[in-house]
């Protein structure tokens, strides 16, 4: 592993804050509420977001589109469809404490069944257009919205 160095492009310290983005992944109310340990993750995300904003780091919210339908070749399509009905009843909203003071922040959504937030429509173009070369990821496990009881 390379040592941190401002001259080494394989390390985060190589990039300025304006070339860095914090991706906040899948902090949906439904996911936070269904697992008590997610409350600590949310609190940590809120404080990390405040710090990142103070450093001039881009803040990007990445969510699952609660109005989407699974694509036809998605694995466990029946499970995904039932998870989406729960999502819709919970409105699929992001935790309110994370969207407070969201001025200048952007949100991207992805279709249910896409595990990676990098599949969010427009995200890669946004990163390129804004010269973002370094990502910090923080989020909840939402792969196929698999939480206890779903």
TrEMBL record:
Q: Transmembrane stretches, by residue range?
A: none
- Report the superkingdom from the record: Eukaryota
Could you tell me which InterPro entries the record lists for this protein? Answer: Isochorismatase-like_dom (IPR000868), Isochorismatase-like_sf (IPR036380)
Known Pfam families for this protein?
A: Isochorismatase
Q: Where is the Isochorismatase-like domain?
A: 20-143
* Family the entry assigns: Belongs to the isochorismatase family.
**Protein name in the entry:** Isochorismatase-like domain-containing protein
Q: Which organism is it from?
A: Pseudopithomyces chartarum
């Amino acid at each position: 592993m390379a040592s941190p160095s401002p001259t080494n492009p394989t390390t985060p310290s190589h990039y300025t804050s304006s070339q860095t983005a914090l991706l906040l992944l899948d902090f949906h109310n439904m996911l936070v509420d269904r697992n008590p340990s997610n409350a600590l993750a949310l609190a940590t995300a809120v404080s990390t977001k405040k710090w990142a904003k103070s450093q001039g780091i881009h803040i990007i919210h990445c969510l699952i589109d609660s109005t989407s339908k699974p694509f036809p070749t998605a694995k466990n399509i029946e499970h995904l469809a039932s998870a989406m009905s729960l999502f819709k009843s919970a409105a699929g909203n992001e935790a309110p404490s994370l969207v407070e003071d969201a001025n200048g922040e952007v949100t991207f959504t992805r279709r249910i069944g896409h595990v990676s937030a990098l599949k969010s429509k427009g995200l890669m173009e946004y990163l390129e257009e804004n010269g973002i070369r370094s990502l910090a990821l923080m989020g909840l496990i939402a792969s196929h919205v698999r939480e206890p009881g779903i």
